[in-house]
Amino acid sequence: MPRKPAQPSIADRAAAPGGAAAVDRALSLLAAFRAGDAALSLGELATRTQLYKSTALRLIASLVHARLLRQQGDGRYALGPEVARLHALYAASFSLEAVVMPALHGLVARTNESAALHVRQGDRRVCLHRVDSPQLLRDHVRAGDVLPLDRGAGARVLLAFSGARGAVYARIRGEGLAVMDGDRVPGLTGVSAPVFGHAGALVGALTLTLPSARMKNRFIADVRQAAAELTAQLGG
Questions:
Q1: Where are the domains of the chain?
Q2: CA 118/CA 206 separation, integer angstroms
Q3: Residue 24 falls in which region: left (phi positive, over 0), alpha (psi -120 to 50) or beta
Q4: Cα distance between residue 163 and residue 19, in whole Å
């Protein structure tokens, strides 16, 4: 009979409500792989998941059988071909709009201001998705509009997290957010935070725009939260 761990494993501490403990633990072994990991030993997998080696080994046997893991000649374990097949299915069915638009609607509902996702396109940026503020006084950028890359909160975030040099961009990277008043249009404030995808790739800038007179400090936390949630949904 397996020993009861002296301390709960990572999977036990974050167990799915109503779920199966064995499944949670098996999935934690897959989640133990990080960017740059070609393969991991049994010891490394046990350490990262805080599972006993004996427990991890039994779960690994099932994952290898399901082709979610494969054992190499040196005894270490790598992700298996079934992971690639599932990724291909996910990529074929994934819609960025289906993930982004609910996030923008949620941000607009919390702030009553306009929200958009900007992406870089060469030396310009594009407003890829947008939800307008219900208020009459607002900026009138539309989805599909091409905007400058050297002005505006969204532009500053895209440059900062693409490695741009300078004190302004270093500060944005340090704070994880840009708040710009009148940078693109006088009287208009933008609050923008980066959105990341798989392996930390920059997806775009989630930006709230509003007349400067309506700016509230709580909008900064709202944008941070929305960008973090969107990043999590995109695998960042």
A1: 10-91, 94-233
A2: 7
A3: alpha
A4: 42
Q: Is the dihedral of CA 226, 230, 232, 236 positive or negative?
A: negative
SS (H, E, C) 104-173: HHHHHHHHCCEEEEEEEECCEEEEEEEECCCCCCCCCCCCCCEEECCCCHHHHHHHHCCCCCCHHHHHHH
Q: Rounded to the nearest 5°, which phi and psi values hold at 141?
A: -70, 145
Phi, psi of 56 (to 5 degrees): -60, -40
CA proximity to 39, closest of 80, 67, 76, 73: 76
CATH code 3.30.450.40 for 94-233: yes
Q: How many residues does the chain have?
A: 236
pLDDT in tens, 42-88: 999 999 999 999 999 999 999 999 999 999 999 999 999 998 888 77
Neighbour count for residue 27 (Cβ, 10 Å): 17
Q: Which residues pair with 120 in a beta bridge?
A: 125
CB atoms within 10 A of CB 197: 16
Q: Quick one: CATH architecture of 10-91?
A: Orthogonal Bundle (1.10)
Per DSSP bridges, beta strands 77-79 and 69-71 are antiparallel
Amino acid at position 122, single letter: G
Tell me the C-alpha distance between 160 and 149, whole Å: 11
pLDDT at 11: 72
With 0.90 as the threshold, say if the pTM is over it.
Answer: no
